[in-house]
Model the fold of this input.
Amino acid sequence: MNDAAFEYAPVGLVELENRVIRRCNRQFAQMFGGDTSDYAGLPLMQLYPSLADFERIGAQWLEVMRSTDTYSDERVMRRRNGDLFWCRARGRSLTPDDPFRHGIWSFSDISEERPMVALTPRERDVAILSCRGLSAKEIGAQLGLSYRTVEAHRARLLQKFGARKLPELVAKLSGMPL
Done:
């Protein structure tokens, strides 16, 4: 890849080997914080909100990239200072037989389009179980709450996310680290 085109691309670019950053461009370093030299050899896992998110999204990547050598999604990532932000990720494997071995990825900060929403721990629990398709009664049974309390949490979630109905809320939550 042309070094100038890579270095000065208007989106964050990284070259990954086994989900470890081999190199990144200036836009990527600016987006996540620091200099390009801070990222060489850094496991991508360190830029995810949690190990669970890293593993969940990695499993999604692998499944899709086994049938096609490209993948894209919108997800929450973590800057070096710990701040979370929404990011659009797109990648292509250069080794289709082993998709994680070598690839090129772009990352774009979309946090202005999708701001982070603060949730209480109980709202987060209700959101997770709602995304898994559980009814208010099933969620209540798992969390030791009445279904009416679960419905009250869902109502607050609908308001916080600007959703009119539960399916719209679940769609908005689908990229959230759960």
The chain has a mean pLDDT of 89. DSSP finds seven helices and five strands in the chain. Helices lie at 3-7, 26-32, 51-67, 121-131, 136-143, 147-161, 166-173.
